[in-house]
What we know:
The structure is a single chain. With 297 residues, the protein is an alpha/beta fold. It has eleven helices and nine strands. The strands form two sheets. Strands 3-4-5-6-7-8-9 form a seven-stranded mixed sheet, with helices on both faces. Strands 1-2 form a two-stranded antiparallel ribbon. 36% of the residues lie in helices and 15% in strands. It has helices at residues 2-7, 36-41, 57-64, 91-102, 136-151, 170-189, 204-207, 230-237, 248-253, 266-277, 287-296, and strands at 24-26, 33-35, 71-72, 108-115, 118-125, 156-162, 194-202, 216-219, 259-260. A zinc finger (C4-type) spans 27-49. One of its GO terms (molecular function) is acetyl-CoA carboxylase activity. Component of the acetyl coenzyme A carboxylase (ACC) complex. Biotin carboxylase (BC) catalyzes the carboxylation of biotin on its carrier protein (BCCP) and then the CO(2) group is transferred by the transcarboxylase to acetyl-CoA to form malonyl-CoA. Residues 23-292 form the CoA carboxyltransferase N-terminal domain. Zn(2+) binds at residues 27, 30, 46, 49.
Amino acid sequence: MALDRFFRRRRPQQQSGADLPDLWTKCPECKEGLYNRELEQNAFVCPRCGHHLRLDAQKRVDVLLDEGSFEQLSGRVHPADALNFVDTEAYTARLERAQRKAGRPDAILTGTGTIDGVVVTLAVMDFAFSGGSMGSVVGEEIARAAEHAAAHDLPLIIVTASGGARMQESALSLMQMAKTTVALERLTEKGLPYISVLTDPTTGGVTASFATVADVIVAEPGALIGFAGPRVIQQTIRQHLPEGFQRAEFLLTHGMVDDVVDRREHRGYLARLLGVLLRRPQLALPETATATAEAGA
Length: 297
């Protein structure tokens, strides 16, 4: 009997979801299963259909900046619940959950680094943190990034990904629209370039403030960019919207953005653009961006 139990084949135990290796990601556009290592090497752009997957702030930094060059500036300012806001749950509870998930105080990461050797100040919004909503901390960190760039004679690049102003902070959130726009004036006064990179999605008060007042506005392919959503607009005006409305390519055609650039080309593209704006010899830019940069200079 003992020998029978010894030689009996054991059924393999099924692993729980937490134990399974995270090897694959499904493309939200073409539904193709993508090997994560291949996806990372391709800057998180689907190699099958070209769809640009959303990135968290740290991955965006890794894609844009030279390896090992990033020095963080943000992280010392923490959000507060000044209004004691409660909807289906307390705002403080939402913040704590988002902070644990993202590993940072709020929906923004700022710092300095280099792009092909060019030193820049960089601010990246994190859509994974409460939809990248702009509250008091996001506005403060962007203002500080602009002030840091002006104080150190550096160009500023802001990468946006946001659903707009954070409703839990009410008017305090809306005040950040004016605050960030005024802070960016310091760069204009010193003749320093500010480049805005719009990613999916960039909407609401972010679009209506610092995201669209840059010297050069670049968008990722297919990015949703606007103030109100297309469904709200359609219900308001009671008209059918044109195909591709509020997508990056539509906005390029109608003059709201200066160029639409594949994420895999961002680092080289921005380096060449900075070369034009800073009057440094660089490789040639595409015609549309060169004309915009020279006009701004």
